[in-house]
Amino acid sequence: LGVRVLEGVSACSLNLDVEAAAKGAAGGSGGAAAAVITSDGAELRADAVVLACGAWARELLPLASFPIKGQMLRLRPPPGHAQREAGGLQRTLFGDGVYLIPRRDGAVVVGATEEPGAGYDRRATAGGVAQLLDKAVAAAPVLADFTLDEVWAGLRPTTPDRMPLLGRASSALNLHVAAGYHRNGILLSPLCAKLVADGIEGKPEASLVELEWPNYYFFGKEGVLMLAEEADEQPDVALMHESFEKLGEMAPPPCGAEAEEEPTLLQYFASCGLSSRVLDLADAIFANDYGADMSDVGLHEVMHEQRHWTYGEKYLVLRGACLQDAMESLGRGLDVRTAWRVQRIDASPTGWGADGAAVELSAADGRVVRARACVVTVPLSVLQRGEPEFRPPLPPPQAGAIRKLKMGSALKVIVRLRRRFWPADFYDAVCSDSFLPEVWLSPAAELMRPDAAPPYTIVGFVAGARAERVGRLPHADIARRMLAQLDGMFGSSDDPHPASSSCDGFLVKDWAAHPHVHGAYSHPTRGAHGARPALGEAAHGCVFLAGEACHAGVNPCIHGAMETGEQAAARCWSSLQPQSRSRL
To answer: Which of 451, 404, 196, 214 is nearest to 315 (CA)?
Structure first.
């Protein structure tokens, strides 16, 4: 790639050269040009310098960042313990303040403490080790007989609001910062690299914007639109949230319960005494977000999701970029082939020839690609239709999970508007007793700017069986009903039909009608608790599945899909390497 890597060399300081900046600014607004002083005394200059030093970034530049120490340890099975058993663990297990990662050689990695006051101390301490061991054994008592094999500590780069620091530094014209990812470095780094690179190339600067969700509630029967924070103070709405939060404190029963024996989210909320007013609001907030009706959402997977949710309650949206930019960035340099529908995947762990290929992917027109391993990311609903064909068939745990999990429908309506008519702080509304359970501005961070110019777009979203019913209507009728809903939400006596009078275009996207999707995403399913992790296991040693349906924490969204993609890629890469000892 033309990159020169300096091994064994540290960046010791930044030289902010004002004279060099004056020569290169070409009419800029001032500032310095940054050069890097290294531990061997060299001064490195470049057109652009990116400060991406993790927890040590503030050592080179005054930044609102700090390290949070985390300790981890590795346990080895006792003598005679069957290799690969890993204490009976088959996948990552999350417990109270601890997680357990089984390794292929039978070892178990235990993590991780969170010590914000430790500074740059990277020592593994007796207290930290004791804390991890106590929680690990509580989560999996069999580990009490394992041997403590290795301990280590690392530093998470963190900011006061846990948001990354991205963009051009104010102290130097050519200095850019990419730091402060906390626990999410692997997840955010591809997108943030794209954002920083675009800034260096002079493209419009992009940033992450944090938004509250829900933003507004619209009570359709009452015709009332109000801020969510105000509605949440109402006793019946507060009870709804309290009831949902309690699910994270309840342990789901052992895996394998029959679907007909498992209560639904609707039955649970009704048992909590929720009024009909907020039951429909709960359906719009929770079930529609899951991609289903509340009567189809299995309670046990919801409990599991809530117990393992670590992502916070706010929305992160992009300003100045979109996820398509991230996809294009990740796809650079790759051999991307479109219009190449895989009809069959043949797997042979022992290989077919001298090239070491263990997987053969065949297209309908006879084209073939061979590889040592592959990652399959087609949607659950496509797998349920038997596409692609796997030879030999997928192992029973994966095939069983595919049968058990359910995928709902979803439909989006996008209307284009010539003028604003919503509150300045509006970006999203969850709507009870309404045609569409949720509507939002898109792109939200751009259209919330006071100076945003028309046209404006609002997206309506409906999921589950309701989406199937809506999808049977003529598209023009769907758009007309959405505009009527917006009129009811934002209209006034002086301007009763603001949406209908300013719309100059619409688009309806029915995900269930897409030939390569057939739906939205998987939802918490009755009788499927514990099935998802099996999807992420290797099939025949060389085929790895990824996608939101594989997420062990039941995170059925694009973020969950990205995490499973990283995990599948790591497993795939590991399977191709000679067996060796790893600290990770």
So the answer is: 214
**3-class secondary structure, 14:** strand
Cα–Cα distance between 177 and 165 in angstroms, integer? 6
pLDDT at 454 over 70: yes
Task: Judge if the upstream peptide bond of residue 455 is cis by omega within 30 degrees of 0.
Answer: yes
pLDDT for 548: 92
Distance from C-alpha of 566 to C-alpha of 558, rounded to nearest angstrom = 12
How many residues are present in the chain?
584
| Single-letter amino acid code for the residue at 527 | G
Q: Which phi and psi angles does 426 have, rounded to 5°?
A: -80, 135
For 93-102, the pLDDT digits (tens) are: 877 788 898 8
**pLDDT tens string 345-401:** 999 877 766 677 899 999 989 999 999 999 999 999 999 999 999 999 999 999 999
Tokens matching residue 81: 């313990």
Compute how many other C-beta atoms are within 10 angstroms of the C-beta atom of residue 562. 21
Can you read off the two tokens belonging to residue 445?
């961070």
In the chain, % helix, strand, coil (3-state, to 5) comes to 35, 25, 40
Token pair 């067996």 in the structure block, residue = 579
Instruction: Check if the beta carbon of residue 431 is closer than 8 Å to that of residue 220.
Output: yes
* Best CA proximity match to 251, nearest among 297, 307, 308: 307
CA angle in degrees (0–180, nearest 5) for 97-101-105? 150
Neighbours of 90 (CB within 10 A): 13
